[in-house]
Amino acid sequence: MPLRMDVWLYMVTWNVATRHPEEDLHEMLGLGTPGKQKMQERLPDFYVIGLQEVKSQPQNIVMDAIFDDPWTNAYRDVLATRDYVKVKTIRLQGLLLSLFCLRKHLLHLRDIETQYTRTGFGGMWGNKGAVTIRLSIYGCSVCLVNCHLTPHDHLLQERITDYNNIIRAQIFRAKETSNIFFHDYVFWIGDLNFRLADGINAEEIDRLIKKGELTRLLEKDQLRQAMSSGEAFSELTEQLPTFAPSYKFEFHSSQYDLKRRPSWTDRILFKVNANVYENLTLQAEQVLYRSAQDYVQSDHKPVMGEFVIKVFSDYYERVVEFLPVEPWYLDEENSASYTLSGDVQPTLWDWIGVFKDEFSSLDDYLCYVYAMRGAAGGNSNSRVKKVVFPDTAVRATGPYRLLYFSHNSGSVLGMSEAFEVRSRDNGHQTQFVCRDGY
């Protein structure tokens, strides 16, 4: 039997109704109050944050694609204090999906890829649709989908069509996982916008919610009906919600806005292909499914889910190992050496980035060089490589790290130990301004 271990994923889906962050995010993330970590066995290994209706204006589309939005930064600020790193973010207008992991897992992620599908206005506009991140975690393939489907009670068939269009449209480069449902694990979150079937008005729904008769309401849930009929989401599983409908609330209130019928629009579903490996049965155990009623800035409540999945603990592939990096000096060319494991097939577009030691996002590189084109001297056939960085690579003293990125797979194949950047002149230090104000 191969060694196996548990990996803990914490997921959030929230329609933020075009508002900017106003409320503290710690409770939503299952963390303690600021400055006090919640007492628990351990932190989640991964956070998956899926947002809908993030404010997006046509004139800001280019900027949105280049820089993190206020919501991504707000979550990142909280998680960085617990040593999480933002692995990837993908955005399609108001749809946003971000993946964070504890720093210790960075070198065990492979084949990171993103996709998006527009379903608004017949597939021409991205106000509705899906954004996806797929990757391998310790050798197991995982697909994360965040979607926002067609609204309104009477447009059930459009939601079903949206779902099936997303499945058909999203094709990935990895041959064995070219389709969403070919992955070992699939997690599908978002504002699915399924409502309650006709025959019950808003006031009656509100009365049943206050009486705690949620099971009676779930019998009328369009999503569960579509799953049962096989029209949509039948490939996935959902734990029966025990929380009240997450929509529609009055803004800055926990009272329903009864101009709309309350519904479970915000959902978290999953699928496990359990028997794809000969010696390991995959498993996803859901340990939490709840909403956060105390958040009031949107007309939706955030919905959270926690899962424990099985992965291979002894899985290693495509590894780059940095040799110890000697101290670097400001305003000088500096170098580093690394070795490639036998299964690494480097390309001319692989690159090595310079990061501050305590970086909190894989987008935070200060400088980079192409690994093969920056190589200096030595045998070209050797698995040991030396790379030279320009004298402008760093602008201040302090601790740094190097990360090796595979162009083909979007993976971090190697990370150096922290090393120091020093100044030859200890009497004074010239001040510079460069990327991100650093």
What do you see in this structure?
Helices cover 12% and strands 33% of the residues. With 438 residues, the chain is mostly beta strands. The protein has helices at 61-66, 70-80, 156-169, 202-210, 214-218, 222-229; strands at residues 4-15, 46-52, 84-92, 95-102, 109-120, 125-137, 140-148, 185-191, 266-272, 284-291, 303-312, 320-322, 328-329, 334-340, 351-356, 367-370, 384-389, 398-405, 412-415, 419-422. It contains 6 helices and 20 strands. Strands 3-4-2-1-11-10 form a 6-stranded mixed β-sheet, with helices on one face. Strands 13, 15, 16, 18, 19 and 20 form a 6-stranded mixed β-sheet that branches.
- Secondary structure class reads mainly beta
Q: Biggest β-sheet, characterized?
A: 6 strands, mixed
The main sheet orders its strands as 3-4-2-1-11-10
The level of helicity is: 10-25%
Tell me which oligomeric state these chains represent: single chain
> What is the molecular shape?
elongated
Task: Please report which band the strand proportion falls in: under 5%, 5-15%, 15-25%, 25-35%, 35-45% or over 45%.
Answer: 25-35%
Count of helical regions: 6
Q: Report how far apart the termini are.
A: 49 Å
Q: What series of H and E elements makes up the topology?
A: EEHHEEEEEHEHHHEEEEEEEEEEEE
Average pLDDT, rounded to a whole number, is 90
Note poorly predicted spans: 427-438
Backbone CA Rg: 24 Å
Number of strands: 20
